[in-house]
């Protein structure tokens, strides 16, 4: 059994964290022989709820859990952490302007970036879940200049998992990550017209469908995607497979540099590498262009707030 590592979860009193903490404490992310000290950050009004989460974590009697530290102080939460799940963010409310949402999140991710910079291990692996995750990751990295930029990532794995699930329905055994199902290319098994229409809209609208049915956002599947993301980062991807991660662009696939964008990555020795040479058809290119435009606008607005 190795020495415990410290792991922080922010928004720890929230819905996603409630599922995520179980997965982390159970050894699914960092391995079954890695002891953990978990620090749980939330805002002061949530400390009572967090106390309940703490009790439940202890009552699970996880053998890997050495200690749990609930706190509203970022300096305590980020102290010596090797991994950070940044789940807490300002939720989008009805009628809220994107600018207001961005400036609220700039404040949160500035504080957390500075705390990571001052207190975390320099090789800390950071996953941002709180939306807008790509831009929040960029802001966080901006305020943590002593930590390499490639250590800041955003969660796009939920879309990959949702896509996998949709392909599984018509093909039974999917591996959308490598574009195959039952060893055959997905494109041989499913109609192209489906892949460009219902498939895309179903995955895009999945979050809204869950809210409509559950009257609450997706939390279990978001937590599973966060756990999958960091598990693969920590433990590596199997040879010949790749996963989706929001990482800082190096210009691959003609995506502008210096925005956090979802790329196919393979991971070895805790380092991700963008998989090159995947073919993109016109349909995929047109979708990537829309996303690129949105992310560039969001980055500009966020940087204006940062520099104000
Ligand atoms: P959730 O745990 O459901 O969601 C947290 C964040 O994850 C939101 O920004 C949400 O974005 C995002 N998210 C990403 N993917 C998904 C998905 N598929 N489904 C749902 N959400 C997704 O929110 P809760 O309100 O239950 O909990 C948030 C907690 O964070 C609260 O306890 C709050 O006090 C805390 N918080 C803590 C901060 C801190 O530690 N400093 C700062 C701000 C908040 P979206 O809004 O788009 O749904």
TrEMBL record:
UniProt keyword list: NAD, Oxidoreductase, Tricarboxylic acid cycle
A Pfam family this chain is assigned to: Ldh_1_N
InterPro entries (UniProt xref): L-lactate/malate_DH, Lactate/malate_DH_C, Lactate/malate_DH_N, Lactate_DH/Glyco_Ohase_4_C, Malate_DH_AS, Malate_DH_NAD-dep_euk, Malate_DH_type2, NAD(P)-bd_dom_sf
Annotated EC: 1.1.1.37
Domain Lactate/malate dehydrogenase C-terminal: 171-303
Protein residues bound to substrate: 92, 98, 131, 162
Name the record gives this protein: Malate dehydrogenase
Organism field: Clunio marinus
């Amino acid at each position: 059994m190795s020495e415990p590592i410290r792991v922080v979860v922010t928004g720890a009193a929230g819905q996603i964290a409630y599922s995520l903490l179980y997965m982390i404490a159970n050894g699914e992310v960092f391995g079954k022989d890695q002891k953990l000290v978990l620090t749980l950050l939330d805002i002061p009004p949530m400390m009572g709820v967090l106390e309940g989460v703490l009790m439940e974590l202890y009552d699970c009697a996880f053998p890997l859990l050495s200690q749990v530290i609930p706190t509203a102080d970022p300096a305590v939460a980020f102290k010596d952490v090797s991994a950070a799940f940044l789940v807490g963010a300002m939720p989008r409310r009805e009628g809220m302007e994107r600018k207001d949402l961005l400036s609220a999140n700039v404040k949160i991710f500035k504080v957390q970036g500075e705390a990571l910079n001052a207190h975390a291990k320099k090789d800390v692996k950071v996953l941002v879940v709180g939306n807008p995750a790509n831009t929040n990751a960029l802001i966080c990295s901006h305020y943590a200049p002593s930590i390499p930029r490639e250590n800041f990532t955003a969660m796009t794995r939920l879309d990959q998992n949702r896509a996998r699930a949709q392909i599984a329905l018509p093909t039974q055994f999917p591996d959308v990550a490598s574009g195959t199902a039952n060893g055959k290319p997905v494109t041989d098994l499913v109609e192209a017209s489906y892949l460009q229409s219902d498939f895309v809209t179903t995955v895009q609208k999945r979050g809204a469908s869950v809210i409509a049915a559950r009257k609450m956002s997706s939390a279990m599947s978001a937590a599973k995607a966060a756990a999958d993301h960091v598990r693969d980062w920590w433990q590596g991807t199997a040879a010949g497979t790749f996963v989706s991660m929001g990482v800082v662009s190096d210009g691959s696939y003609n995506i502008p540099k210096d925005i956090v964008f979802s790329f196919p990555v393979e991971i070895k020795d805790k380092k991700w590498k963008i998989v090159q040479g995947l073919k993109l058809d016109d349909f995929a290119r047109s979708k990537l262009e829309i996303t690129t435009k949105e992310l560039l606008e969001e980055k500009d607005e966020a940087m204006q707030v940062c520099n104000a």
